[in-house]
Design a protein that fits this description.
Blueprint (H helix, E strand, L loop, with lengths): L17 H16 L7 H13 L6 E5 L5 H7 L10 E8 L30 H11 L3 E5 L6 H11 L11 E5 L3 H14 L4 E5 L3 H7 L2 H5 L6
Parallel strand pairs: 1-2, 3-4, 4-5
Length: 225
């Protein structure tokens, strides 16, 4: 939304067969991404903060439930030959699928809808890679997610089943959402799945957090001032 991609799935499409609905969603988002209203300068500012302020021995990984590929389009503008020290990977992991066509379609996660049951989440190389990275890490920033749909609650449930034995069990979460009610719900769900974790909440949007300077990461030793 910070890039002006405000398109949502029309309610009338809910009666469509699943594959037809997915096809329409993909075509609509691709069209929206190419419109003149899209402004990815927010991602540019975000990446510049990471590049200039990330302390040595820290790096970042990008995981999203969004279908669009605006973040990776901004990363591509950096013309990276290899991932820099502050970026663990220049790949954006789409755990609910993406409109982007991977060279190897077997690598990416299946395209998942909000109303899908968790059984639609099939094992893929991408899903396995990001899950293994997640459970081995300790600091997470969550932007806008409520973990409301069954698909996203399943992700927390999967993490909960391994949290006793892996670093994520003692992780730190920074949760951003301008909607205080959704913010409280999502932070509560994280805390329930990871009872030993620390959850910090900020009732602001992603854009405001960047303008503010992302100071929570300074306090955690990830960022320099």
């Amino acid at each position: 939304m910070g890039c002006n991609l405000t398109w949502t799935v029309p309610e009338l499409w809910n009666a469509l067969p699943r594959e037809e609905k997915i096809d329409r969603i993909k075509k609509s988002i691709i069209k929206e991404m190419g419109s003149n209203k899209i402004d990815t300068s927010l991602y540019n500012k975000f990446l510049n903060h990471l590049r200039k302020r990330t302390k040595e021995n820290w790096c970042h990984r990008f995981v999203t439930t969004n279908w669009d590929c605006l973040l990776e389009s901004e990363i591509n503008k950096l013309n990276l030959k290899v991932s820099p020290k502050w970026m663990a990977s220049n790949h954006v992991y789409h755990i609910n699928g993406t409109v982007e066509n991977y060279p190897n379609q077997a690598f990416g996660s299946p395209f998942l809808l909000e109303e899908d049951l968790y059984t639609e989440r099939m094992p893929t190389p991408e899903a396995n890679i990001i899950f293994n990275h997640m459970v081995g890490n300790t600091i997470f920033v969550v932007v806008g997610m409520s973990f409301e749909c069954e698909m996203d609650r399943f992700l927390l449930g999967s993490i909960n089943r391994v949290e006793d034995d892996l670093p994520i069990g003692n992780s730190i979460w920074i949760v951003l959402n301008p909607d205080k009610n959704v913010l409280n719900i999502s932070s509560s769900r994280i805390a329930t799945a990871l009872p030993r974790s620390k959850v910090y909440t900020k009732a602001i949007g992603f854009n405001e957090w960047i303008i503010e300077g992302m100071h929570t990461l300074v306090g955690l030793g990830v960022f320099a001032f």
